[in-house]
Structure formats: structure tokens, C-alpha cells
């Protein structure tokens, strides 16, 4: 428990975390300035079609900033603390650290801290954008299903009823999904750090792998598609979301296990 507390302190009190949050907020501010403010004040006749449910960053699929944020999400999640093992090993701090704790405690505590700050780096910009967008645009409930073509959730989607009856709950669910993906991507970067010796490559590896995945993996299985609320017409099957998340997490755990064994042999 003391090791986890120490790792969380180190994760939260570092400039990389601040940089990642500010980068995410910058994208959010650009989105608000270019895609939300131009519609203010909203005329009464168009209130149902100019709401946070259409123009929040995570939903606004027509905005360049939406794609930019979700493409950069693996990088934003990795920057704060995913390279901390590499830094500890390189500086010799890890050997001093392991005098006071076990390897299992060290590796597992670092994993939890890495995932926690990775999720927070995505949570803060998305919540900020939602809050500001909701203050600028009227939070009018979605209209009748006959107007559904104006919205991002289409017939056949298992999220259809939730979006029209509880749109804010729909949004918060997808904020949670994005944060979990961010945490898992950060864990993947942490696992990769056992095998690479370049900090830039460690932090950007998962981002680059996601770009490659857009070419080789079917569209409906892409994390980039599954974590975006704006891709509602694709029908976000919960099964696909769970399979991709668990698969990535399993790969991360295998990398951490193999990497820790490898380091133990080398040392």
C-alpha cells in the first residue's frame, strides 16, 4: 500500500501530467471556439438541433478536433507516467526503491498509477468541453425519432433508447469508455517500456500502433471507433468494446510479466 501511495504521488506531482492535461484542454478550447461559439446565441427554432448532445467534443464527429483528440488519446495517456519504469531503471532509482519493497509490489503499483493518470488526462478535457458546451448551448432533449438523421445514433444501435431518453447518461458512459481505453493504452506503453531504450519511442509506440491498426483491422473493431460517441451509427456493441479492452490489457500484462522476468535475468 505504501508503494502504491508513493507511485501515485510521483505520478500526480510531475510536469508531464500537467503538459498532457493542458494539451487535451487546448484541443477542447479550440473545439469550443471553432464548433460551439459560432452557434451562439441559438435561435429558438433550432434549439433541438444545437445542443451539447450534438456539439460536445466526443460527439461532434464533423469537427476536426474530435478526430484529433481521439487519435492523440493514446499519446496523451502515455505522456504522464508510462515511461516511469524506463526512467527509474535508467537512473538506478529502481534498485534503491526495491530495497524497501518487493518487485511484485513495485511493478503492480506502478501499473495502477500509470493507468490512473492515463485515464485522468482524458477525463479532464472531455468533462471541461462538456461543461462549457452545456453552458453555451441549450440542453434540449433530443426530438422525436423521425428527426434521428440529425443525430449520431442510428436505428439498430443498442444505445438508441439510452441516447434519446437519457442523453447525458449516454455521454457520461462514453466518457468512461474513453477513460478506460486511455488507461489500457497507458498500461500498454508501460509494458513496452521494458523492451525499448528510447523514451520518445516508448511514449509514441501505442499511438503509432493505433495508426497502423486503422489500416489492418476491420473498422468496427478499431478502438478509435469504439470509444467515440460520434461513431454511433457504427453500433457500439458492448462485446466489441470489452473484447478490445481486455485483449489490450492482456497484452500489456504479458509484456510487463515477460519484461520483469527479462530484467531480473539481466540484472
Structure in words:
The chain is mainly α and 267 residues long. The protein has 12 helices and no strands. Helix 1 (2-12) crosses helix 7 (103-136), helix 2 packs antiparallel against helix 4 and helix 9 (167-192) packs across helix 10. The radius of gyration is 20 Å and the shape is elongated.
Write the layout of secondary structure elements.
Blueprint: H1 2-12, H2 15-36, H3 52-55, H4 64-78, H5 84-91, H6 93-97, H7 103-136, H8 160-165, H9 167-192, H10 199-216, H11 223-226, H12 238-266
Helix pairs in contact: 1-7, 2-4, 2-7, 4-7, 4-9, 4-10, 7-9, 9-10, 9-12
Order of helices and strands: HHHHHHHHHHHH
Based on secondary structure, the structural category is mainly alpha
- Helix % is 55-70%
Q: Give the end-to-end Cα distance, rounded to a whole number of Å.
A: 26 Å
Total strands: 0
Major sheet summary line: none
Low-confidence stretches: none
Q: Compute the average pLDDT.
A: 85
Radius of gyration: 20 Å
Number of helices: 12
Fraction in beta strands: under 5%
Query: What does the overall shape look like?
Result: elongated
What key phrases describe this protein's structure?
68% helix, mainly alpha, 12 helices, 267 residues
Summarize the structure.
This protein is an all-alpha fold and 267 residues long. The chain has helices spanning 2-12, 15-36, 52-55, 64-78, 84-91, 93-97, 103-136, 160-165, 167-192, 199-216, 223-226, 238-266.
